[in-house]
Design brief:
31% of the residues lie in helices and 27% in strands. By secondary structure, the protein is of the alpha/beta class. Strand 11 (248-253) and strand 12 (256-261) form a beta hairpin. The chain has one domain (8-266): 3-Layer(aba) Sandwich (Rossmann fold), CATH 3.40.50. The termini are far apart. Strands 6-7-8-3-9-10 form a six-stranded mixed beta sheet, with helices on both faces.
């Protein structure tokens, strides 16, 4: 009996983008993402990670094709896309001191018109999401009163209440200490494991964190895809040296791997 393969949630085919038509940010990127995968778009600063996320969000219009659940991206309305993809930015600045609960409920905007107010059920759902993320006690604080790690979880809560099944995160651990890095990435992984979202796609620059929390890695450098696949396939000493210019040791432990710089004195 033939087993039918599930269609990819996201398919990127021969994607290229140049700022002002001159500065090449992406060149010939192709990959697929399936349900249940945590995917890291990995690479150093300037690799093209954020540009790639902006293409997936339809902020930039590249050459090539992007399919979301089998539908070509540019045939999807902005409102439909907002219901499909939840976005967690690298930074958030607000001039208003919103309460956390009200800020989270802004994620319901794609489901409302301009005059709608959140319902009782939506408030209950927001409190439930904050509870799942371990930050329910922050509900009545303002977003100006929370730490960097707490703000990242609040931004994830705002994306989750959209009921989007695809979660995009741009450098979700930037500016966080190691404890909060591990906490945020563990929560992202569990959201996929518990099927609260179908997939999470994270732009990361740290190969060590990528090995710990990814099912698939798309390794990029200067807008070009160097490799893609499972961490142990992608994060070879040769690939890591090509991208980071640093020699790494690959330590295998069980089914996983850890990457460790060989000699930091040479960095």
């Amino acid at each position: 009996m033939e087993i039918k393969k599930e269609n990819p949630i996201i398919k990127v085919k021969d994607l290229s983008y140049a700022y002002d038509g001159k500065i090449i940010a992406l060149k010939g990127i192709s990959f697929t993402i399936s349900k249940g995968e945590v995917v890291s778009i990995l690479g150093p600063n300037g690799a093209g990670k954020t540009t790639l996320l902006k293409c997936l969000l339809k902020i930039l219009k590249p050459r090539g094709a992007i399919y979301i659940n089998g539908k070509e991206l540019w045939r999807i309305t902005s409102k439909e896309l907002a219901k499909s993809i939840g976005y967690v930015p690298q930074r958030h600045h607000s001039i208003f001191a919103y309460k956390v609960i009200d800020f989270v409920l802004m994620g319901r905007a794609p489901h409302h018109n301009i005059f709608s107010l959140p319902s009782k059920d939506e408030y209950e759902k927001a409190f439930k999401i904050l509870e799942i993320l371990g930050i329910k006690d922050l509900a009545d604080r303002t977003i100006a009163e929370v730490s960097g790690g707490q703000l990242q979880l609040i931004l994830i809560a705002r994306a989750l209440i959209q009921e989007a099944k695809i979660l995009l995160l741009d450098e979700p651990t930037a500016h966080l200490d190691i404890a909060n890095e591990l906490k945020v990435l563990s929560i992202v992984r569990n959201l996929v494991k518990k099927k609260m979202v179908d997939t999470a796609i994270m732009a990361l620059h740290d190969p060590i964190m990528a090995t710990l929390f990814s099912d698939k890695i798309v390794l990029m450098d200067k807008g070009i895809m160097v490799a893609q696949g499972r961490p142990e396939q992608v994060l070879t000493p040769e690939n890591l040296y090509k991208v980071y210019g640093i020699e790494f040791d690959i330590i295998r432990r069980g089914n996983g791997i850890f990457v460790v710089p060989k000699d930091v004195s040479k960095v």
